[in-house]
UniProtKB/TrEMBL annotation:
Ranges of biased composition (kind: Basic and acidic residues): 1-19
Organism of provenance: Haptolina brevifila
Protein name: Uncharacterized protein
Region (Disordered) location: 1-34, 106-131
Residue spans of biased composition, Basic residues class: 121-131
Biased composition (Acidic residues): 20-34
Length: 131
């Protein structure tokens, strides 16, 4: 009986040690999980901050691109207006028209000048001159 009681106490002590070790293991696992979750939360915060930063950066880039396109369009409109003025000429009343109604003054430009100033004057001036 003493041997059985001794053996039972030894078994109970061993079970207690096993239970304590298991509890410690659970606590360690729990701490490791807590650390892992904290690291994941920190990574998520960093990713979210990076996402927000890039979103702002993309919005700024889009604004700059729109401004650049608007500036380009304004420059093209200005160039088109200047070209139209060149085509109309400074003093259209001085233009001499040939029988087909085209401006011949453009043909008299010095070498190297553009002939973009040539334009059709139409029969209106001929009718006015005849009247």
């Amino acid at each position: 009986r003493a041997d059985e009681a001794e053996e039972r106490r030894a078994d109970e002590a061993e079970e207690r040690r096993a239970d304590e070790a298991e509890e410690e293991g659970k606590e360690e696992d729990s701490e490791e999980l807590d650390d892992l979750y904290a690291a994941m939360a920190l990574d998520h915060e960093k990713d979210q901050a990076e996402y927000e930063r890039r979103k702002v950066e993309d919005a700024r880039w889009a604004e700059a691109e729109e401004a650049r396109k608007a500036e380009e369009a304004a420059e093209e409109a200005k160039e088109a207006a200047e070209l139209e003025l060149l085509m109309l000429g400074d003093r259209p009343e001085e233009c001499v028209s040939d029988r087909r109604g085209f401006d011949t003054k453009a043909l008299e430009l010095p070498k190297g000048k553009s002939t973009l100033g040539a334009r059709k004057t139409g029969g209106k001036r001929k009718r006015e001159a005849a009247a």
